[in-house]
Amino acid sequence: MDSLVTRAVIALAANAVALLLAALLLDGVRVKPLFFLLLVAVFTVISLLVTPTLTAFVKENAAPIASLAGLIAAFVALVITVLVSDSLRVTGLVSWVMATLIMWVAALIVQYISPLVVREREERRQQRGQPPA
To answer: Angle 80-83-86 (CA atoms, 0-180°, nearest 5)?
Structure first.
């Protein structure tokens, strides 16, 4: 449970930075500042639900594109977030492609950093003589 919370916190932080970068760098991405934190939470929850499901589906049914599952998941999560939230607007093909790439990079960061952070926390617990969470 502790590793799930850690992963969620890292995902929230990475997605916040990624959405902020997309909004600042891309003319076609608009975020309502008042609802930014809610938007990040919505995108993160959708992403955490869509990614494992889509990855499993792609690996089972379309093995040649399995390496693109994370990129596809980032796009799907972005589309769903735009559809269910009034706080994010993406217009134009270039903005969609670039925003997807930015969100995918955030997902990659989460994927590689989360295990490191969880392992570090477990090692510190063991050093203090506490049982793993």
So the answer is: 125
